[in-house]
UniProtKB/TrEMBL annotation:
Domain spans labelled RNB: 295-645
Compartment(s) of residence: Cytoplasm; Cytoplasm, P-body
Major place of residence: cytoplasm
Protein name, per record: DIS3-like exonuclease 2
Cofactor dependence: Mg(2+); Mn(2+)
GO terms under biological process: cell division; miRNA catabolic process; nuclear-transcribed mRNA catabolic process; polyuridylation-dependent mRNA catabolic process
Residues the UniProt record annotates as site (Important for catalytic activity): 315
InterPro entries according to UniProt: Dis3_CSD2, DIS3L2, Dis3l2-like_C, NA-bd_OB-fold, RNase_II/R, RNase_II/R_CS, RNR_Ribonuclease, Rrp44_CSD1
Residues noted as binding Mg(2+) in the record, renumbered to the chain: 307, 316
């Protein structure tokens, strides 16, 4: 009863606040005045002085995609994030922007935490009507305000300056007429509503809109557009922008994909002529004789690639030769992209701006022109290719006895897929038939290749064991893959990607090469080396996770990365229920983890901060994928200079750091685009092939909903109690464990079914497509039903 009174009280306060705000806005309009909504930005002088005095903080703004009124900045001390409450406090900054913020007085640090969902509050037609009218007011920002009655202290701040606008300022969304018919605004502007609720609504000129929009706006209700924000004044809740392009129907793959790419600033335009002129013009191209003489000739060695079956940009190859003393000569051979991408050229400049290839479900947006990434640089079979090699003499246990770095030339003898290599690993004593493999070079036998794969696998197993014994951590999360119709490109099926021993084989030697190169370039260029570090987990989130595990009776050791890996793998058995619990817990353990980042060694004073938390190594970099990562191209140039087979890097230290930061930004954007592409295809798959049934495991319990990990598809969904045919639901804390009891409505003369939802409960769910494009819901199946 007390809880209901509390809900009503907060809801009443919520409505009073917005009705009051609404009336104030109307009054200001009537008076002909307009107050500033946002604070004016500080001057650059004030910002510089405030940062020096420690009165201001700076960092990349992160806006919660599910609760757009919540935003965060990383704390300078690495502890709990700094909280920014509301759109007004964000002061027109967008997600990803580098901002400067002032810390609010400590008495304002109380932050309410909510377990009550909005849908339990707005439950009458009158309320819904009022909320809709408020939401449509062009001078009002509505932020969902929730309160569970519990508060805790968290540092809060207010944005006072935008140092760097990292967000693209592009948005996908829909257009509609303004509601204030007859008003001056409605004569000039239409309203653009972004799909991403973290972005403001935007005034766009009516003249930008399609012909016929004013007469028949309903015809464009489901048309997806691209808009770019051009301004956002202090006195307006809404930004101003210009309509860039009509993409097509919402929910269709190509329009949605183009919208995702544009919104995240991915350059998918054709390569300009000045860039193409940097490529070899006399085709077919062959390696100049003078270049061959400078390199170690490995063309007669048994060297091969192992990649996904559909891969076309093959940038790494492996070799393994048994020596007379019982040791092995193992080589990692990487495409020598830096030979073709000359520093300072137009090609170099564009590659540095793109910074990474972007992998969508249905295609790749390449960093380099396809002539390079799919032909001249790709280590295609039975073709001479320029490479950069790391070659070790090592024992079967993986102990390195000798190491060589240098430019080389190879001729891959076969293009293996992970499945091909896996079949060799799985059948060590069987003879592989030629028809089971792609074409093999006549200079090498299938048995020779098979034995090399087996030897590499044996060494990789030892390397992997040693890595984890030394304290490495790996958190494997479920990854969804798709099969596409060859004609339509639509998803025909989907499955959880199986990470095989052949994947682990390649991973071990790529990691070994990256670590070796990191040490090499840092020794020679202690101030200019481009490395990759992984900061430790966020302390507050890790402490919360530790507390959760204690409550659940899970004995995980969070003292360091190796201890976490060991305890996570020892915690559970191998039965289906244990595997599901491990997937959920792995997902939870991933949340406090920070992103690994590129950096220039001269930009960080403390060498201890170079450390890579997950790998638990002091130095690490990226060397093995220069076709798709520009950071690797810079590392290749540094390595060439360090061994005297290339010029000194022209970039000064500050320019290396700036490029590193740009690579970080594009890596983050690429990762998000890849995730959104998978979400898009899965939504289409649910619509075309659903409803889909699957077992799911409960990850979190709220008092009117609960979160599940759908095990068959690896997606997370929230299930709402008010969407289920229940007599009632009851939330309680059993000890410190949240628990939700559902009482299902009976069928015919049956008794009501009681179901208890706890964390790690296995349930059956149905995924159903909504009427809204790209939306689908998870519905809990009633126990005992087919």
């Amino acid at each position: 009863m007390g809880r209901k009174v509390l809900i009503c009280r907060h809801f009443s306060m919520f409505l009073c606040f917005y009705v009051s705000m609404y009336n104030c806005i109307k009054l200001e309009k009537h008076k002909g005045k307009k107050k500033n909504v946002f604070e004016s930005y500080m001057t650059t002088e004030e910002v510089s002085a405030g940062l020096k005095r420690g009165q201001l903080v700076q960092g990349s703004l992160r806006i919660n995609p599910k609760k757009f009124h919540e935003a965060f900045l990383p704390s300078p001390d690495g502890q709990r994030d700094i909280f920014i409450d509301g759109v007004v406090s964000r002061n027109r900054a967008l997600n990803g922007d580098v901002v400067v913020a002032k810390i609010l007085p400590r008495e304002q640090w109380k932050v309410s935490h909510c377990l009550i969902k909005m849908y339990t509050l707005v439950n009458s037609k009158v309320t819904l009507k009022l909320m809709r009218s408020l939401a449509q007011s062009p001078d009002l920002i509505i932020e969902a305000q929730f309160d569970s009655g519990t508060e805790e202290e968290q540092c809060r701040s207010l944005v006072v300056y935008i140092l760097e606008k990292k967000h693209s300022r592009a948005a996908t969304g829909f257009i509609k007429l303004l509601n204030d018919k007859g008003g001056e605004l409605a004569k000039v502007y239409a309203l653009f509503s972004p799909v991403d609720h973290r972005l403001p609504r935007i005034y766009i000129p009516l003249m930008d809109c399609p012909d016929g929009f004013i007469a028949r706006p309903q015809d464009y209700a489901t048309t997806l557009f691209i808009c770019r924000i051009t301004a956002w004044r202090e006195d307006s809740n809404f930004a101003e922008g210009m309509l860039m392009k009509s993409l097509g129907q919402a929910g269709e793959i190509e329009p949605e994909t183009e919208g995702i790419l544009t919104e995240y600033g991915v350059d998918f335009s054709d390569f300009p002529e000045k860039v193409l002129q940097c490529l070899p013009q006399d085709l077919p191209w062959s390696i100049p004789q003078a270049e061959l003489q400078k390199r170690r000739d490995l063309r007669k060695e048994c060297i091969f690639t192992i990649d996904p079956a559909t891969a076309r940009d093959l940038d790494d190859a492996l070799s393994c030769k048994l020596l007379q003393d019982g040791n092995f000569e193992v080589g990692v051979h990487i495409a020598d992209v830096s030979y073709f991408v000359q520093e300072g050229s137009a090609l170099d400049q564009l590659a540095s701006e793109r910074a990474t290839s972007v992998y969508l479900v249905q295609k790749v947006i390449p960093m380099l022109p396809r002539l390079l990434c799919e032909e001249l640089c790709s280590l295609n079979p039975m073709t001479d290719r320029l490479t950069f090699s790391v070659i070790w003499k090592m024992t079967p246990q993986g102990q390195i006895l000798d190491e060589w770095f240098g430019r080389s030339v190879i001729c891959s003898c076969v293009k293996l897929s992970y499945d091909h290599a896996q079949s060799m690993i799985g059948s060590p004593d069987l003879q592989i038939c030629a028809k089971e493999l792609p074409p093999v070079s006549p200079h090498h036998t299938i048995d020779e290749i098979h034995q090399a794969v087996l030897n590499l696998h044996y060494i990789a197993q030892n390397l992997r064991k040693q890595r984890f014994d030394d304290g490495a951590l790996r958190l494997d999360q479920l990854k969804l893959s798709f099969t596409l119709d060859k004609e339509s490109g639509m998803p025909q099926g989907c499955y959880i990607y199986n990470y095989k021993d052949s994947n682990k084989l390649v991973e071990e030697f790529m990691l070994l090469a990256n670590m070796a190169v990191a040490h090499k370039i840092y020794r020679h260029f202690p101030q200019e080396a481009l490395l990759r570090r992984h900061p430790p987990p966020q302390t507050k989130m890790l402490n919360d996770l530790m507390e959760f595990c204690d409550q659940m009776g899970l004995h995980l050791d969070f003292s360091n990365s190796g201890a976490l890996h060991k305890s996570l793998n020892e915690q559970f058995g191998n039965d289906e229920y244990s595997n599901a619990r491990k997937e959920v817990l792995t997902n939870m353990c991933s949340r406090p983890m920070q992103m690994a980042v590129y950096f220039c060694t001269g930009a960080i004073k403390e060498e201890s901060l170079f450390h890579h938390y997950a790998l638990n190594v002091p130095l690490y970099t990226h060397f093995t994928s220069p076709i798709r990562r520009f950071a690797d191209v810079i590392v290749h140039r540094l390595l060439a200079a360090s061994i005297g087979c290339g010029p000194q890097l022209q970039l000064p230290q500050d320019a290396v750091q700036k490029q590193a930061e740009h690579c970080n930004d594009r890596k983050t954007a690429s990762k998000r685009v890849q995730e959104l592409s998978a979400e898009l295809f899965f939504s289409v798959f649910v619509k075309e092939c659903g409803p889909l049934e699957s077992e799911a495991m409960v990850m979190g319990v709220l008092n009117e909903a609960f979160d599940v990990l759908v095990l068959r598809y690896g997606v997370q969904k929230r299930i709402y109690c008010n969407a289920l045919p229940l007599l009632n639901s009851n939330f309680q804390q059993v000890g410190k464990k949240p628990e939700l009891t559902l009482l299902w409505k009976p069928d015919d003369d049956e008794q009501p079914v009681r179901q208890v939802i706890k964390i790690f409960t296995l349930v059956e769910v149905v995924l159903k497509s909504d009427n809204v494009p790209l939306k689908y819901t998870a519905v809990l199946k009633k126990p005992g039903t087919d």
